[in-house]
Design a protein that fits this description.
- There is one protein chain.
- The chain is of the alpha/beta class.
- It contains 14 helices and twelve strands.
- An eight-stranded parallel beta sheet has the order 4-11-10-9-8-7-6-5. It has a two-stranded antiparallel sheet with strand order 1-12. Strands 2-3 form a two-stranded antiparallel ribbon.
- Helix 1 packs antiparallel against helix 13 and helix 12 packs across helix 13.
- The longest helix is centred in the C-terminal third of the chain and has 32 residues.
- The protein is globular.
- The two termini are 33 Å apart.
- Belongs to the FMN-dependent alpha-hydroxy acid dehydrogenase family.
- This is Alpha-hydroxy-acid oxidizing enzyme.
């Protein structure tokens, strides 16, 4: 099947994934209001294009956390990628390497972080704060030793949000998929009607992160620390004061607090408040190159893309994930030029308007 946009890959992925695995990937928490709002908020934003600009020799490359990327995109952390394809994280990481964009290894990856980092490219490591602080900091050290370039510290998961699709499905991991980075026992594999085994497992393993946790991580690594899950301007300001390298404005793809504001609605205010004190990235609802352009115009240095990369992985393994990233590059180049911009830097000077309709 020929895929002309990300929606085409979504349909292909849904056709091949079992229903409960699709729900695990696609679903949000509660009534999924925040999940749906992420897309609705992006669709209300319109860019004001500029005309009569010189567009020859333009580039879609940029710097993210001080290193070159061929597209202002990083692959977001997604747990248990062997649910979607037998090669899981290895295939997705190879696709990101070939596309020239960072790939974020998840604490709950189904392949050991060292094997994923060995693929090459630009690996980052995403950290969940565990009840055992030593195990958390050991993961940070392992990631640095393996060659990861940043620690993406997810701060919006003191425990997993109440995801009704998983509860209704009694979702549990198959025996072939495990949390490969630490011994997690069999809690995530115990199927029980009306329960999410994955949520039960994280409730046992995770602890709420605090600003003291952030300081502990910063003291334990030379790598830049990026806080993922920031929505309040006050938290963004404190993150700068804490000396972090970046923040990801995100409501966790609508999977944590249902009713949390979409990240794109807070992005402009947060970027203005941070004012260069650290990098600002956006996560949540990105489904096209045009969406990337909107995020950059509102102050993001780059975006994170999660579910769509998994659609590509499910639909075609490494080739499918690479196709997804190639589609984003084609779409972003088109949107950038049509907006009258020859670079990502020029896109940061575009104006935007929010539609009064819809």
């Amino acid at each position: 099947m020929t895929h002309f946009c990300l929606d085409d890959l979504e349909r292909s992925a849904r056709a091949v994934l079992p229903g409960e695995i699709w729900d695990f990937l696609a679903g949000g928490s509660g009534a999924e209001a925040s999940l749906e709002a992420n897309r609705a908020a992006l669709e209300r934003i319109f860019v004001i294009p500029r005309m009569l600009r010189e567009l020859t020799g333009g580039t879609i490359g940029t710097e993210i956390l001080g290193r070159r990327a061929e597209l202002p995109v990083a692959v977001a952390p997604v747990a248990y990628q062997r649910l979607f394809h037998p090669e899981g994280e290895l295939a997705a990481a190879r696709a990101a390497r070939d596309a020239g964009v960072p790939y974020t290894i998840c604490t709950l990856s189904s392949v050991p972080l060292e094997e994923i980092a060995a693929v090459g490219g630009r690996p980052w490591f995403q950290l969940y704060w565990l009840r055992d602080e030593k195990r958390s900091l050991d993961l940070v050290r392992r990631a640095e030793d393996a060659g990861c370039e940043a620690i993406v510290f997810t701060v919006d998961v003191p425990w997993m949000g109440r995801r009704l699709r998983d509860l209704r499905n009694g979702f549990a991991l198959p025996d072939s998929v495990t949390a490969a980075n630490f011994d997690a026992g069999d809690a995530a594999h115990r199927r029980s009607s009306g329960h999410s085994a994955v949520a039960d497992h994280t409730a046992r393993e995770f602890a709420p992160a605090t600003w003291e946790s952030v300081e502990a991580v910063r003291a334990h690594t030379k790598l830049p620390v990026v806080l993922k899950g920031i929505l309040a301007v006050e938290d963004a300001s404190r993150a700068v004061d804490a000396g972090v390298g970046g923040i990801v404005v995100s409501n966790h793809g609508g999977r944590q607090l249902d009713g949390a504001v979409p990240g794109i609605e807070m992005l402009g205010e947060i970027a203005a408040t941070v004012s260069g004190g650290c990098e600002v990235l956006l996560d949540g609802g990105i489904r096209s190159g045009g969406d990337i352009l909107k995020a950059i115009a509102l102050g993001a240095s780059a975006v994170l893309v999660g579910r769509p990369v998994m659609w590509g992985l499910a639909a075609g393994g490494e080739d499918g994930a690479r196709e997804l990233l190639d589609l984003l590059a084609v779409e972003f180049r088109n949107a950038l030029g049509l907006a009258g911009c020859d670079s990502v830097g020029a896109a940061r000077r575009l104006g935007t308007r929010v539609s009064r309709h819809g």
